Amino acid sequence: MKNNIAFKPLTLPNGVELKNRIMMAPMTTCSGFYEGSVTHDLIEYYQARAGEIGTIIVECGFVDNKGLAFPGAIGLDNDEKIEGLAKIAQVIKEKGSKAVIQVYHGGRMVEPKLIGGQSPVGPSAIAAPRPNAPTPIELTPEEVDAMLDKFGQAVRRAIQAGFDGVEIHGANTYLIQQFYSPNSNQRTDKWGGSRDNRARFPLAVLDITHDMVKKYANQDFIVGYRFSPEELEVPGIRFDDSMYLLEKLAEKGLDYVHFSMGAILRPSIVDTQDPTPLINKYVAMRSDKLAKIPVVGVGNVINQSDIDAAIDNGYDLVAVGRACIAYPDWINRIEKDEKLELVINSDQREALKIPEPLWHFSLVESLIRDVNLNVKKFKPGSYQEKVNDESYEFLINVELGKDFIKDMQLVNAKEFDYEVLDNFSVIKNRIIDSNSPHVDAVSGATTQCEAFKKAVTKAMAKSNKAAILAEGGDPNDKSYDIVVVGSGGAGLAAAIKAHDLGANVIIVEKMSVIGGNTNKASAGMNAAETKFQKLKGIVDSKALFYKETMTGGKNKNNPELLHYFVENAPDAINWLDDNGIELSGLTTTGGMSVDRTHRPASGAAVGGFLISGLVKNINKRGIEVMLDTSVTEIVTENNKVVGVKVSEEDGSIQIIKAKAVIIATGGFSANKEMVEKYRPDLKGFVTTNHKGATGSGILILEKLGAGTVDMSEIQIHPTVEQTTSYLISESIRGGGAILITQNGKRFVNELDTRDKVSADIIKLPEHYAYILFDQQVRDENKAVEEYLSHDLVIQANTINELAQKLAINSAELIKTIERYNQFVIKKQDDDFGRTTGMRHPINKGPFYAIKIAPGIHHTMGGITINTQTQVLDTHKNIIQGVFAAGEVVGGVHGANRIGGNAVADIIIFGIQAGKQATDYING
Ligand code: ADP
Fold first, then answer.
1. pLDDT at 2 over 60
2. Got the DSSP string for 607-671?
3. Are both 742 and 637 inside the same structural domain?
4. 477 domain residue, yes or no
5. Lowest mean pLDDT across 281-295, 542-556, 590-604
6. What is the domain range of residue 409?
7. Looking at the whole model, is its pTM more than 0.70?
8. Pocket lining: 608 vs ligand 1, CB cutoff 6 Å
């Protein structure tokens, strides 16, 4: 590791040598004294993190007491602060790291309550585009000059406090950025208007910084500049604007420039069609002059591979944020080749020297894993379990303490290669750290990890029973307030909400993994009028969301449920956010005219992200989850719910007592008989769904008299890659792809309705087809990159070669494509009457094919409920004590579900079910 470039020294333009290329990123700690002085906790916090790391960039200090952008900010605003700041600089330098401090003013981002109820100031009297943002007072020209002086004085104080450098904070929409932004700066004097005028303020801050350095410091004082590369607002700073400013700053001289981003390889947030990381653009666009100035990357750097990615993509320095909070000795661990996970055990605050306010700051709070909360009692001892994945049998010893998971050993380790052992060790660490078997699997080794986890759940169940027996109790006598059936998004949300409202909850899941079909959700979560939309300046309305969903559902949607759905969607987005699940990225799906599909900022699929976040919340609260246990019946006495009957993996039957039941068992796409019963025409279709989507909740509730609605409304998708259930988007056909049989022939108008195309594929003797396209389609459809990265695509340089790879008669395939190309040219498909998506002839290699077949995708129909998620019987009467949410319910989506509405459905109604069931038991 020591050979890695990141651990080699780097000389800055001013001649100062940094001993390595790793920096601790500036992070808000909120741990200053109320008026901005340094606290003892802060000194300890920085001291603990200094040492091996090359440079520590201390959090930003405000230059003026009207400039603090968050509570507990530290100040550089008067000379009395120097003494405390000097202590921070000293402890960092003593341990051998360079100490740099950020200087900033929050400008219009300052909340009045932080500055004694006064109005904040800004370049113009324009409020920030966020809810309840105050309108700032425009700085007069004299005040602008005075402000520059304040920046200068702050730099002087940093110098006098003994810091090795300052970082000018031109990012995060604070004052310096506000001056450069055409959105916040609409002045008509020399500080506003043209781009050059707007650049004047940041440049003047740099000038005054240089003046101060000349006057008070040595020439080896470091001056860095941090910038946010883009703004979403219209108008707003675009990437080429940032490049323009950086070039100007570079001409004046800088020691480094620092991207402010959440991920080192983040692409544009404005041009979301372009996946190129901004750093790649930066490297390509910068002048020789700018290229001489080291560039710092930041964002989610946790392991060596992240450092490598940063350096490989052109960063000279890498700033590490949260990982330095979780691991004060982060750099030593990386040097020892440790693989780290971004979590902090709940009992570690003092040992890690994390100040209390920082501990409660959302950024850190979301990393905390509770190690003490698990309520289960175990009979201490070692339990041996046999578990399998598709290829191997694992013999695992699970050692349990009284209320914690102590250790795990792979007894037959000798039989396995390094990779399996490595996976085992990762999962073992995750399980022990979080004191729960419900942890994320290692990507690419899901089933293997599920087997390891299962050994632990089995051992826990056994030992829990033993503990109860030892205390003279009856292990089968389980009693809760609420049983939640199903651990998909709806069930988890319901359980968390009910727990938070004080109910004693258990989740029962029939599969051996948590997450259900929600794990597979891709697009995101639809919601209109959310804070994330507002932040991005997206104008949307609940009414439009309602209308478009209703149209998409062919007006078959239940109006009351749909109203509740659109009304409560923004709160559901906030609820997730409050629980550390931030869906701040936005996109759109078919049938929606506005960007209202919320997804992780990284653009990752929503399902895994959501489940992993919800499970962290389940673990944190110690909510019990019984896996491999099916609920078979709701038990009632005198028409009152008293519990559920469950059947465990070993065949044993027991009753779990409860006062209320929430059914969140998902849809029935994977139940062939049920699908065929309601839609005989779908016989033989495969499904994109997980195995557990069997509709058992519907059957259980029907037995209790529940009504159903829209049962024959089943959504199918014609182009599904069958081994992974990956949907191959309609946009590929829309972009010019065709469908080909194993005989090399076309057989359908590829862009006919989903059900028609699906039916024609099923009619083929082989029941599958190939979707075939060329480089031109790939160029225009980013989704293809995803398919390629998942190894779904067969590619070849010529049609002939592709035919061979697909075992298709090559002459036949060439003939088909030539014929189709003629149709494209004359804009008329003589064979199948295709009229759309005939963009260009398929003639530009490489050529690509994906084997596909239709898949049953979603069951819109299900149980009837009211807006309080109470299950209704066939006469629309309420069945007391029984609630249902998620895909098991019918009515929300009508005849067709819009992409992004399923996730919204499960969270909105999941939360509601948790609340209503709790209200019910509290009577
Ligand atoms: P939703 O999207 O509505 O939350 P999911 O399909 O994601 O639905 O999750 C439903 C979960 O319920 C799945 O994990 C499934 O295995 C589980 N499940 C279905 N039927 C039963 C049952 N009878 N007992 C326990 N769990 C069940």
1. no
2. HHHHHHHHHHHHHHHT-EEE-SEEEEEEEEETTEEEEEEEEETTS-EEEEEEEEEEE-----TT-
3. no
4. no
5. 590-604
6. 381-469
7. no
8. no
